[in-house]
Design brief:
The structure is a homodimer of 585-residue chains. Chain A contains 17 helices and 23 strands. Chain A has 585 residues and is α+β, with helices and mostly antiparallel strands. An 8-stranded mixed β-sheet of chain A has the order 6-9-10-22-21-20-17-11, with helices on both faces. A 5-stranded mixed beta barrel of chain A has the order 1-2-3-5-4. A 5-stranded antiparallel β-sheet of chain A has the order 12-13-16-14-15. Chain A folds into 3 domains: 12-103, Nucleic acid-binding proteins (OB fold (Dihydrolipoamide Acetyltransferase, E2P), Beta Barrel), CATH 2.40.50; 137-272 and 424-549, BirA Bifunctional Protein, domain 2, CATH 3.30.930; 291-413, 2-Layer Sandwich (Gyrase A, domain 2). In chain A, 45% of the residues are buried. Chain A starts with 17 loop residues before the first strand and ends with a strand. Chain A has helices at 56-63, 120-125, 127-130, 134-156, 197-205, 243-262, 275-282, 299-302, 308-311, 329-340, 370-380, 396-413, 459-462, 491-500, 505-519, 533-541, 571-576; strands spanning 18-31, 34-41, 44-51, 70-79, 92-103, 160-161, 179-181, 189-191, 210-218, 230-239, 271-274, 296-297, 315-321, 350-354, 360-362, 387-393, 424-428, 433-436, 441-444, 471-476, 479-486, 526-532, 579-581. At the A-B interface, β1, α3, α4, β6 and β7 of A face β1, α3, α4, β6 and β7 of B. Chains A, B: Keywords: Aminoacyl-tRNA synthetase, ATP-binding, Cytoplasm, Ligase, Nucleotide-binding, Protein biosynthesis. Chains A, B: Residues 140-566 form the Aminoacyl-transfer RNA synthetases class-II family profile domain. Chains A, B: One of its GO terms (biological process) is aspartyl-tRNA aminoacylation.
Amino acid sequence: MFRTHTCGELRISDVNKQVTLAGWVQRSRKMGGMTFIDLRDRYGITQLVFNEEVDAALCESANRLGREFVIQITGTVNERFSKNTNIPTGDIEIIVSELNVLNAALTPPFTIEDNTDGGDDIRMKYRYLDLRRPSVRKNLELRHKMTIEVRRYLDSQGFIEVETPVLVGSTPEGARDFVVPSRMNPGQFYALPQSPQTLKQLLMVSGFDRYFQIAKCFRDEDLRADRQPEFTQIDCEMSFVEQDDIINLFEGMTKYLFKEIRGVELEGQFQRMAWADAMKYYGSDKPDLRFGMKFVELMDVLQGHGFSVFDNAAYIGGICAEGAAHYTRKQLDALTEFVKRPQIGAKGMVYARIEEDGTVKSSVDKFYTQEVLQKMKEAFGAKPGDLILILSGDDAMKTRKQLCELRLEMGNQLGLRDKNTFACLWVVDFPMFEWSEQENRLMAMHHPFTHPKDEDIDLLDTDPAAVRADAYDMVINGVEVGGGSIRIHDPKLQAKMFEILGFTPEKAEEQFGFLMNAFKYGAPPHGGLAYGLDRWVSLFAGLDSIRDCIAFPKNNSGRDVMLDAPAALDPSQLDELNLIVDIKE
Amino acid sequence: MFRTHTCGELRISDVNKQVTLAGWVQRSRKMGGMTFIDLRDRYGITQLVFNEEVDAALCESANRLGREFVIQITGTVNERFSKNTNIPTGDIEIIVSELNVLNAALTPPFTIEDNTDGGDDIRMKYRYLDLRRPSVRKNLELRHKMTIEVRRYLDSQGFIEVETPVLVGSTPEGARDFVVPSRMNPGQFYALPQSPQTLKQLLMVSGFDRYFQIAKCFRDEDLRADRQPEFTQIDCEMSFVEQDDIINLFEGMTKYLFKEIRGVELEGQFQRMAWADAMKYYGSDKPDLRFGMKFVELMDVLQGHGFSVFDNAAYIGGICAEGAAHYTRKQLDALTEFVKRPQIGAKGMVYARIEEDGTVKSSVDKFYTQEVLQKMKEAFGAKPGDLILILSGDDAMKTRKQLCELRLEMGNQLGLRDKNTFACLWVVDFPMFEWSEQENRLMAMHHPFTHPKDEDIDLLDTDPAAVRADAYDMVINGVEVGGGSIRIHDPKLQAKMFEILGFTPEKAEEQFGFLMNAFKYGAPPHGGLAYGLDRWVSLFAGLDSIRDCIAFPKNNSGRDVMLDAPAALDPSQLDELNLIVDIKE
């Protein structure tokens, strides 16, 4: 060992001990004949002291140390004269008697501090230096702790972690697969799994009963913000269960994690909200319930009074921002601009303030009598000092989504989205199908193995679009952290599902035959869910992006700029793989 | 929930309870008016009873159930008349009152029992049925438990699990990489990691101090028996440590695992054996120390007596098999045939029995006096009743390897390799380099970042082939379960190493510049090791192959016969990837 203690370990009770420490030079400063060095390792920072009068040569060596040099020192623990209450080792310092430079260091391209001067690009290129910053390291420590606790909980509930293969076959539906050419099987390719979905269902057929895996998944999608081509899933599946069993068990896990990791006790059952209600009242299948501003629909109240925008709308709805009547015209104009941005796409915004005397003053006063406006006020339950914001449009769903953006923006502006407050809910009763304009057919909203709700099975023949599924998402603070479904285990029901999805029996056999065949040998009723680990960790860490809870993330072009990957292959390698690269201009 | 209890749970104390169980029909038998069904799930087997006299219709339904049907039953727990002491639920049975068929099953293509009639190929094709067999499932349960305990131990020692990426850059040395074409970066490829070696070294540069990961690794090698293209490694790295620190810590982990998983207390320190001694005394860098038969070299004793085979040999050595003098001529001839097989390649074998009276009777008596043979006996410390087996050859190392095979075979024949006895050791002081006939240069035996032993650094200039490394393997029962090394952190030493390995500075920069560059920013002294999880689990499970501790293994052609992967791609997919398949005839 190069050390007797770490840099985060020594306390006042260690005074007079002879110790050896090793670490990185965080900073050094000369004060008169004294040189002070902050020595850093993963565990903390300890102050080293060199005294010119006592040992000039040693002090001179210390003065030559640059930032991020790796050193080993031996010395005596001393009580500090002026203590530093900001760090746990702040009561002591080390009077150094021996200094050993283990490795020199070039000056790092950015400062290794929580508030660094390094931009995103340079931090990613030198990610190994970026990871020295305590804030980044803490995210990865949190990630470690989270996976330890997830495993502890699931193990205690009888789940077995089973590793499923990474080199698998291509799956027909969903996003694009990454593929891997096989040298031993010329012209053939493996695929990297988008998720262990089919394999975990096979494990249920195998009788594994309770499976989980913290699994790497891969999607070759055009990367949007905050997507990674490889990501990590907490993947779970259970047999002989119904939806409530899964929801209860994973609600338990969530509470356990909140308690162990964040020290937060979540009381009572999580709210459960039907998908239709989530859309109706929040315009989103992942509503942020840290704050109110539930949508109020105003068709009855505001249509038919001569304001053509509303009179011709398919939907009129609004939110009430409590105590926001003080918003200035300028602020309101900015909100209007916000909803009119192309990403949101509203045509305009109507607002109304509730005055001190209870009267309503709106931007459309010329069309509405105070009587109508009072009815509107009542619909919101608004009080003096509140601000009502209204959107309308000719497509109810689209307008709701616009209103959702406005609601979230108001939540931000009013400070209602505190990162240390957590609102958890289950969104349930998702529609089984959604209509695809592109494919001109119904598509499975979740996947084709999702079980319809028993009470809706009759609708499969008469009104498939109205069928709801035994599918559920867990939403925390407006982030979908996980989701899953009960799966179909009845071959006849599965066949009907394929029919509705427009598969001929032959095509269903070709694409899903492998799983369907397994199901013929005794499939138990089963269901499961998967959590996005990256997303959940960043939520717990209070991060805006998943990138900083991933050790070596890729950028928006799917590149690892540190490793400089991907890269061109050696021609001999391509040759061995029986491949020719043919780039179209 | 489809059940109140599992099939492994009910005991005599539950008698008269009303219960609901769900599971698979293991077997059914009719005895008079009674039908007995063994209901199986992951947790065990419970006997169900249907009585024709009590409910003829229900009994009739039960009679129609086939093997592997999935059923749910409700009934009353009853004390069995004739108890089955072989299973924990053997004291009770369930008098069934309700039967619900959850899913029918085709007759499985092989019997779902520990002793199955299914061959390897059919078991792999229907792996989801094979996994129902308790013996296979237990291996995966053991694997789960092992990873849980490994994580528990390493977490308790301050290690952080960090996920490193699966889509990385190609590494220059070692086995072939699997590659992944990037659609977003036309003509460029990711590689799948052969191990997280460079990334874990970067984490040390980042100050992570103690890292581990249970990581998937990939090698596109021609598969020998018991190799898989993807395998799992317990990968570890530590900073500010010397070889002994790593050995001590992981010896601690090994003892912990033996205790927690096998209930075996390993006493004292593991033996540490220099590589040179392992080769000299056991002809192997992974000696099986469950038994003796240490090699004895006999050049001094047996050369120069007119037996030309020995007189012209570069090496003569033998083993003494205690109490095996009873071996018949036929058995000895079979051993001679064994060592002469092309896989082993010895020219012949000499044997000698120690008679009751202490005289030695050998197959080469006409060349040797009893006096010489007695000297030989003393060299072995042989006793009456022992059998001495001797090989010779013109290449000492090759002959030792042949003698190693003979020793292991004798260990098998004499029952000295009990799967429930464990002999752990560290093989240390590996040579730094080995000569490659193919490349006509010294190659790194471990990898180019391995640290030479301090006391041998001077030899780098004068006799590099004699330099030993700070490299170590953990060997259990003749299986290398893990290995690692201290890494070089001094850029000057690393440059010298590349020089010896025949790299120009330019080539070294091109291939390893990325890691070397990181090292310029303050690399701590560090080292680590990696365990092969698959191999370790199969050792604990007493398996001869790693395949049965892997849920979905690949065959010797790298195929997953269940998934039918790899497979040809859709032309449009190739097109998107800018690839043309070009198979040479």
